[in-house]
Amino acid sequence: MVEVTHTGGEENDAFDIELKNFPPGSVIAFRVSLTSSSRAAIALMRQNLTLFGFKMRSMSGSNLRQSDKDAGLKAILSRMSLSALNRALFRCHEEEADEHHGNGAYDIPRYGRFVYCGLQGLIPLLNDVRVNNDLGHPLCDNLRRGVWLGE
C-alpha cells in the first residue's frame, strides 16, 4: 500500500512516501522523528523564548528549567541603554530617514510602509500571518521573492 523512497543525501534524511492501491476510507499512521540537528535547533529556540515569558518544554512536552545558555541574550539586553532598546524596537520612519539619508521604514509591496522601523514594525505582520495561516500575505510574498524586508 505504501512505497517509501529515501531521497536525502548522507546529511539529509528525506523520504518520499507514495500511497499505492490505497482505497478511500483507509487510514494510515506514520511515526517520524527529527534529526539531531533539528532537535538541537528547536531546543535553542525554545530556550531563547523563555526570556520572553514562554515556558520551555522538552520534546516530550515536560517543562524544563532555564539554562545558562540564555545568559547570552540576557547579557546583550542588559547592556543596551533605553535609547538603544527603543531604536531596536520602535524607531519611526522620520527618525530612521533623518539618520540614514532618506531610508526610512521598510516598504512591503502591496502592503505599505511599516509603522516602526524596529522589530515592532515586523511583529504585528508576523502575528497576522501566524494567526490566519496567511501564506499569501504580502510579507510572505516579499520573502519568497528574495527581497528581505524592502529594498
CA gyration radius, whole angstroms: 22 Å
Largest sheet: 2 strands, antiparallel
Give the class from helix and strand content and strand pairing: mainly alpha
N-to-C series of helices and strands: EEHHHHEEHH
Unreliable stretches, pLDDT < 50, 5 or more residues?
Answer: none
- Portion of residues within helices: 25-40%
Shape: elongated
- Write out the strand line-up for the largest beta sheet, numbering strands in chain order: 1-2
Count of helices?
6
End-to-end separation: 49 Å
Q: How many discrete structural domains?
A: 2
| Total number of beta strands | 4
Hey, roughly how much beta strand do the residues contain? 5-15%
Average pLDDT figure: 78
What does this structure look like?
With 151 residues, this protein is mainly alpha-helical. It has two domains: 2-77, no CATH class; 81-144, no CATH class. It contains six helices and four strands, in the order ββααααββαα. It has helices at residues 36-49, 71-79, 82-90, 93-99, 119-132, 138-144, and strands at 2-6, 15-19, 107-108, 112-113. The strands form two sheets. It has a two-stranded antiparallel sheet. It is elongated and about 65 Å long.
Outline of the structure:
The chain has 2 domains: 2-77, no CATH class; 81-144, no CATH class. It has helices at 36-49, 71-79, 82-90, 93-99, 119-132, 138-144; strands at 2-6, 15-19, 107-108, 112-113.
What keywords describe this structure?
two-stranded antiparallel sheet; 6 helices; 4 strands; mainly alpha; 151 residues
